[in-house]
């Protein structure tokens, strides 16, 4: 069984704060409404009777242990008689009660007090006075009937305490019920959260990647709080935002890891779709361009490429078209952008055989030719999950970045991607966490007025 990290679980519980609040509020309101509206008040009155041996005061003082034991045994018998139909029918007649003997019996609790000759009679009723009246009447009728049953009068029965009308209902448990409602709500939401946390196999933070997958973390991209969504090209539009700073940190990390080698070609891929690889690739390209590098961004997602939409470029001729054309014409497929030092090759027409095009020697020669004209070439590849496109391309480039969506990407998927890339000898620069929430993550970021939601 997988070890549960308590600190991680506590952080995970923060996601359910609203659920806790709503569930507790509903539970408390339900308990309060039930107790004050639907729950009928029940009043409880109690009287006691004592079973004592007949005789004078001196005889009572000289009572032996055998007499006490005999009296206590008789108490058990008397308790059953007190609740018998003989006694209860007379109580009903004497008080003119409109109730059946069985129903009255359910309201009565008669039991001997431990190690004594005392019998306790407790009556519950919807009216306070009625509960006391019935309890006292049972004691009276019972005493009379015992005299009729036991003619020798060896033991007398006397009422020890008189029942009085209670001032408050015995079932007034509002405080207890409210506390119980809160406890049940917390356990319900907490149990649900724990079950989801235990069954959740998504990659959540640095430790998962470094310890489980033995992969470095190349960078983390913060989830933005800005509501306006005018552009995904954050580094160009909001260069001082926290997201832009995250991208620049990623660029710096890549440069440091390649200090002893000529890093020119970088593939950006992901485990599955919608994890932000195009966003990372595009903004990383802009970041390198801002660092006075001659940069080319190539959209190698020949199935659902969208770089042309991010940069608002025409896609009537792109990589797929270039790979079916004469490579000497590659310059006509390169599109300049409004960002200095950055050019783009769009994906082009979606072909029926993207894997074959990317695996071709023609593509390898194209990459070799482009290296002569650019300092950095970033390839936005297709997701690896179930596809061979980026796995093939990873063997052509210097480094490969794997983008994962924080708390969303499956560990099994990431494991499969890593294994697929390693089988073809790909050099994995690291994992990039995308859309990392500072509220739920163990990593924190300073807020910025120019942040924006990234999707």
Describe the structure.
- The protein has 455 residues and is of the alpha/beta class.
- The chain has 3 domains: 6-39 and 172-196, no CATH class; 43-161, EIF_2_alpha (Alpha-Beta Plaits, 2-Layer Sandwich), CATH 3.30.70.1130; 203-436, 3-Layer(aba) Sandwich (Rossmann fold), CATH 3.40.50.300.
- 45% of the residues lie in helices and 16% in strands.
- The chain has 18 helices and 12 strands.
- The protein has helices at 6-13, 17-38, 57-61, 65-82, 85-95, 101-107, 128-149, 174-199, 206-212, 234-237, 242-257, 277-290, 307-310, 319-322, 354-359, 361-370, 389-394, 411-423, and strands at residues 43-53, 108-112, 118-125, 155-161, 217-222, 265-270, 295-299, 335-336, 342-345, 376-380, 399-405, 428-436.
- The strands form 2 sheets. It has an 8-stranded mixed sheet, with helices on both faces. The protein has a 4-stranded antiparallel sheet with strand order 2-3-1-4.
- Strand 2 (108-112) and strand 3 (118-125) form a beta hairpin.
- It is rod-shaped, with a radius of gyration of 42 Å.
- It starts with 5 loop residues before the first helix and ends in a 19-residue tail after the last strand.
- 36% of the residues are buried.
Q: What is the CA-atom radius of gyration, in angstroms?
A: 42 Å
* Element order: H for helix, E for strand: HHEHHHHEEHEHHEHHEHEHHEEHHEHEHE
Number of helical regions: 18
Instruction: Say which CATH homologous superfamily of the largest domain is assigned.
Output: P-loop containing nucleotide triphosphate hydrolases
Instruction: Identify the CATH architecture of the largest domain.
Output: 3-Layer(aba) Sandwich
């Amino acid at each position: 069984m997988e070890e549960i990290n308590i600190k991680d679980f506590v952080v995970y519980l923060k996601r359910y704060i609203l659920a806790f609040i709503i569930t507790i509020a509903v539970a408390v309101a339900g308990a309060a409404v039930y107790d004050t509206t639907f729950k009928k008040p029940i009043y409880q009155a109690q009287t006691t009777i004592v079973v004592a041996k007949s005789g004078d005061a001196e005889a009572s003082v000289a009572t032996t242990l055998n007499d006490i034991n005999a009296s206590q045994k008789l108490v058990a018998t008397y308790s059953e008689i007190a609740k018998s139909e003989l006694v209860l029918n007379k109580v009903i007649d004497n008080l003119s009660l409109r109730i059946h003997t069985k129903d009255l019996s359910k309201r009565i609790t008669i039991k001997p007090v431990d190690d004594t000759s005392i019998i306790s009679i407790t009556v519950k009723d919807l009216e306070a006075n009625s509960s006391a009246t019935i309890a006292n009447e049972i004691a009276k009728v019972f005493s009379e009937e015992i005299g009729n049953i036991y003619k020798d009068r060896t033991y007398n029965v006397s009422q020890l305490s008189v029942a009085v009308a209670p001032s408050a209902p015995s079932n007034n448990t509002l405080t207890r019920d409210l506390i119980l409602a809160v406890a049940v709500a917390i356990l319900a939401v907490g149990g649900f959260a724990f079950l989801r946390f235990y069954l959740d196999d998504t990659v959540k933070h640095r430790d998962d990647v470094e310890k489980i997958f033995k992969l470095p973390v190349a960078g983390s991209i913060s989830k933005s709080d800005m509501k306006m969504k005018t552009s995904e090209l954050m580094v160009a539009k909001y260069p001082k935002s926290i997201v832009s700073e995250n991208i620049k940190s990623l660029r710096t990390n890549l440069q440091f890891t390649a200090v002893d080698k000529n890093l020119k070609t970088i593939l950006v891929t992901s485990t599955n779709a919608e994890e932000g690889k195009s966003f990372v690739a595009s903004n990383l390209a802009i970041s390198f361009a801002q660092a006075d590098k001659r940069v080319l961004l190539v959209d190698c997602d020949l199935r659902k490429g969208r770089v042309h939409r991010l940069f608002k470029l025409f896609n009537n001729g792109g990589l797929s078209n270039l790979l079916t054309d004469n490579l000497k014409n590659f310059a006509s497929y390169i599109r300049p952008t409004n960002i200095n030092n950055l050019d783009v090759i769009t994906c082009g027409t979606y072909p029926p055989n993207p894997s074959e095009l990317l695996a071709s020697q023609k593509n390898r020669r194209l990459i070799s030719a482009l290296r002569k004209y650019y300092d950095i070439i970033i390839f936005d590849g297709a997701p690896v999950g179930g596809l061979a496109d980026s796995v093939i391309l990873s063997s052509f480039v210097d480094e490969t970045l794997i983008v994962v969506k924080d708390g969303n990407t499956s560990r099994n998927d990431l494991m499969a991607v890593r294994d697929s890339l390693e089988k073809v000898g790909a050099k994995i620069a690291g994992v990039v966490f995308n859309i990392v929430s500072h509220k739920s993550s163990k990593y924190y970021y300073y807020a910025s007025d120019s942040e924006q939601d990234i999707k």
